Amino acid sequence: MQTVQEPAAPTTSEPQWTRRNLLRTGAAAVVVAGTGALGYRVYDTAVLSPGRGDAYDPWQHWRDEPGLLGAVGAAVLAASPHNTQPWIFGVRADAVDVLVDATRGTGTVDPYRREQHIGVGCAIENLVLACRARGLEPTVTLLPDDSRLATVAVQPGRPAPDPRHDAIGERHTNRGPFEARAVPPETLAGLVDPTGTAGLAVRWIAEPAPRAALSRLLNDAAAALVADEQQSLDNFAWFRSHDDDIQRHRDGLTLGGQGFGAVKLALAKLLPASSRAAGDQFWLKQTADVHTATAAAYGVITTGTPDDRATQLTAGRLLERIHLTATCQGIALHHMNQITERIDRERSAGATPAFAPRFAELLPPGEQPLLTFRVGYPRRPAAPSPRRATDQVIR
Ligand SMILES: Cc1cc2nc3c(=O)[nH]c(=O)nc-3n(C[C@H](O)[C@H](O)[C@H](O)COP(=O)(O)O)c2cc1C
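Above: query sequence and flavin mononucleotide SMILES. Below: predicted holo structure tokens.
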């Protein structure tokens, strides 16, 4: 689960308009005057230049650099849980080693580091596509030894055009509302290229009854996650509320990535920040009123071996490939993993499983859920999220 989590409430008297109130009411018409304090918030949240600055530069230059270093520039644009970017790349003359940065985790939200390894898998997919586009024929070896998650060795080849490569700079997680129209079944099926993904399946949940059941489960899981203080805290740790932090860390979740319309986003940035608890409540409301209410269909990546690292890396590759294909077709994708985050939390805490049996009812026997996302035709485009530069992630 990832959402807007707000920093601590101001200690001075509570203003009439807070982000919390705005986000709760959805109000979009507040006249604001340029007071000194407001001027500071304009600067502090970069309200006039969302998505700008060094933290967003990697989106501008990812095509420019040739060779393996350039391919790493495409890899860093991949999806990752909470935008943790848990990757390290070792660039050699004819290969890139891919390692996990275990310090970049989400604690109790991902106790078995399943999502972390899936995120690295997403980066491997971008890396492979970017090698091919640069005339480097890649061979991927997963888990070559204990220290490396993968090695991508390359040989000279011919540049191979691929629209999925061209979509790398346009792929963004879309947390906004989707249109009411359905995505046809054949279009959903066409989003999946299963090459090299043995042991994984993609189940589409688009019919009204199972879709409603999964929506209920997603809302219930969000509520359980918010009620679990440690999960809420671990989630909050990756929210960057101030532009200074975004530019310094170049990772994490931002207001700009929450799928608001322009006016609501500008107002949310101008208003004083509210508390973690208010952010949690906001996320619950968005999950109910926007995310599940406007999902045209859900995709679930399943497997019989969810704890296997190679399976997780391959699932990341499949997930990124689906998202890039969807981007090519004007279909939005929003990752929604609160159910599996609760399943893993219950398991690691030794609690009676509440969510695993309910999810199992919606899936074929023997298949366990690894990843969940919703798709649909977007009402508005999604915004880019910050990224660390290539030289910050190579060793
Ligand atoms: C394994 C994995 C799990 C994720 N889970 C969620 C989720 O539950 N909710 C959500 O809003 N985004 C989720 N995301 C999306 C990330 O937050 C997103 O990829 C990251 O913030 C970078 O943004 P971008 O995808 O727009 O580049 C997930 C991504 C990955 C790879």
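Residues 3-43 have pLDDT under 50 and may be disordered.
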